[in-house]
Structure formats: structure tokens, C-alpha cells
Amino acid sequence: MAPAQPKTKIRVAELLSALSHALDITEGQPVGHCVRACWTGINVGQKLGLTQAQLSDLYYTILLKDLGCSSNAARICAHYLADDLTFKREFKKVDGSLPQVLNFVITQSGVKASMADRFRSIVSTLRHGGEITRELLETRCQRGAEIARQMHFNDNVQQGILNLDEHWDGRGQPDKLKGPEIPLYSQIALLGQVVDVYYMNDGRAEAINAVQSRSGSWFDPKVADAFLALADDQAYWKTLARDDLSKVIYEFEPGQGARIADEDYLDDIAQAFAQVVDSKSPFTAGHSERVTLFADLIAEQMGYSAEKRRWLRRAALLHDIGKLGVSNSVLDKPGRLDEDEFKEIKKHPVFSMEILANIKAFGDIAPVAGGHHERLDGKGYPKGLRGDQIDMDTRIVTVADIFDALTADRPYRAAMPVEKALGIMREMVDDAIDRNCFTALCAAIAKFDQLPTIENHAGELKAAV
Q1: Which end of the chain has less Cβ packing within 10 Å, N or C?
Q2: Is 323 part of the annotated catalytic residue set?
Q3: What GO molecular-function term can you cite, just one (predicted)?
Q4: pLDDT tens per residue across span 366-375
Q5: For residue 34, how many C-alpha atoms fall within 13 Å in the half-sphere facing its CB?
Q6: pTM tops 0.90, yes or no
Q7: Catalytic one among 9, 88, 323, 447?
Q8: The domain containing residue 50 runs over which residues?
């Protein structure tokens, strides 16, 4: 497989509007949340008289507002004993009033836990809820701003993401900024988020009411009024309801000219979203980069060209992007998964393939991401492919993924020594994994005296991608 990298021009706006769907699922939002929030935000920005340069920064702030969303998922599950996807979705409907906060804590904490554990979780939240919420939002926003910086967005975009959850009246999080201390892009991004949450759940009237009721508390009255001026704009609402809004959004990109992603930038985007994926669980920290390293070493041993290795590195970096749609209550479970939980885990390669297949720049790596849990004997998932139905690129990523899974800490066991991991994999040859790929992995490892030396080589790979 591994076709030569296309030389067609890829617009950054098109790439990120499509990738924002991955952020939607980890926030528990209907697909298209970020692009709908962006459409609202750009219309509000226009009403406020922002320049094209300002609208461009606002545009990317809103599309990428949830870059750090995966970084607090494990903490939410651990503290609230909750499904992080459901928790995040419902939390966005809380207006901050005491009755709503109490109801949310009681209904969302420890739904599937024992009565004693649930009670302890609720009491802890009521005692320390403010501090916990601040830490969760601080982690999310700081991580999001950091990844935006790595994606080469300017300080305006970074600050817009960093201060997303601050409120006009000074009661937001994490720094309780007040009034004009809050960047305008943050204010508009938050409004766009609120509008979409209520619009998708309860319709136009409730979206309008949500903004009206928060004017002067969550939102600068001028920003709220700019949105309310759209209340009777049928063109705005009609476009908001379009199924192909992603296409509208990237074609609507503000600014002097469309930003074009070159090959190096595509590598940077793949690296950035790999970090979003790996931030979701403490047990997957660095997983995508390590799989990429091992896949690259295997490909090198097998004589892949430099161009094909670059392509394969992107596939390895993004192979697990679908895990953003799986709850940490499953990903981080310390014991054996039950049947329903295993069904949830088996969805992640499907999610990966669906996300990547809809992105022009990454569509050709979708089959690798969707097939990395298939087995040569047909006993893998999600499609039960066998033998020649599994291409060599996918086989390489599969071997790299299994090797890292065995040699890294997991919720249910500690990391294995390299020799033990290779011994287990040797028994899988020809049934689950490809013989040539496994031989290439062993040959690559044999070049190094010990695994830490291999890990030191990651710096070279990072420079390459």
C-alpha cells in the first residue's frame, strides 16, 4: 500500500476543520461541534467589526478550542467515578448556579459505583469541588495552548484557548479573570460553545435564552448582543444546520489568503494530534510516538524508501486517534474488561478509520489505522480480516503496537522486559503477526544493547517527523 505522498495543496483550514471532529468526540459532543461553534463565532466577530486578521485568529481559536480536552479525562474518571464522555457532555449544560451544580454532582458521580464509593465521591466533590474544577480546567486549557503553539499558531490563538473557561463576572476558571482581562477570542469561543450545546440539545430558542441569561455574567453584554442580533438571521441558522458545514467553514476561512499545509506541517499536525490522543490516559503517555519509532525501525529494516517511511510514520502517529471516543472508565480499568467494555474498546479502530477517511491529507492512512488490531488468522477486529487482506503497512504498525503494549505499563500489569515481550510475540508469528515484520523488529532491537538506548533514538525520530 503506502502510496506516494500527494503533492496537491492541502488547506490548513480544511485539515483542521476535519480533525476537529476528533476533538468533538472526546468532549462527548455531536460531531461538528467545533465547526458549528466556529460558524457562530465568526458571525459574532463580524457583528463586532473585527478585522480579517482578527477573524482569522478567532477562526483557529474556536476550531482548536478543545485541543487540551483529553488531558483531564483520566482525572475525571478517577475522581467522579464517571464516564468522562458523558460527564463532559452534561457539564457543558451547567450554568454555575448552586442548584444545578448540586444536581450535576449527585446525578453524575459514581453512577455505576457502589453506594459507599459513590457517597465518598460526592462528599469529596462538595468539599473540594472548586479546587478540583479549577485544576481540571487549568490542565485542559494549558495543554491546549501548548499544543496550539506546537502547531505554529500565534499568541493570540494560544491565549484564546488558554482562557476559554473564564467568565465576564470573574467567576470563571482557572484564574478568575474579569471583564476585559479576558481575551475577546476566548469570550466569543465560549459563547459559540454554549450556543451549540443548547442548539443541538434543545433547539434555537434555548440557545438564544442561554446567551441572554448569561449576558453580564458569563459574557460581555456587547458580545452577547452581537449574537442576539443574529436571532432573526435566517441565513445564519440555515447554514448552522447544514450537514456539510465543515466544507462551508474551510471555504469561509478569513484572512488575506488560504493557509497551505506543506509536508513538514502535515508531520507537525500528525505529531500534535498524537499528543492529544496520548494525553487521554496516563497509561498511553508517549504510546503513539513509541509505536511510530518501532514502526519506522521495522520499515527501515525492510527497505522502505524515505518517502514511504514518512508516510508510515504519520499512520503510526494517528493509528489510535479513535481512542478519543472511548471512555477512560474502560481505557484505564485495572481489571479484566467485561463483554460490553470490550465492545467499546473494539470501536476505536473504527473511529480512527472514520475520522481519517474524511481528511484529504490523511485519507490514505485510514486503512492502517482501522486495521492495526486485525490478525493474520482472521481472529482480530473490527472486520476479522485475514492473510492477504491485511497489507504490509498495517502489519508493521500492528507489530510495533503490540511490542509497545507489552513493554509499557498498563492498568492491569507492569511493563515486561524486552526479551519476555519478544518471546510472547514469537508465539504469535504467522497466527496474529507477520513473520517478516517480527524478524525486522528483532533485527532493529539487536542493534541496541538495551531498550533505553532505543528510547534515546526517539529524539532523532522526533526531528524527522
Answers
A1: N
A2: yes
A3: cyclic-nucleotide phosphodiesterase activity
A4: 999 999 999 9
A5: 29
A6: no
A7: 323
A8: 10-71+139-261
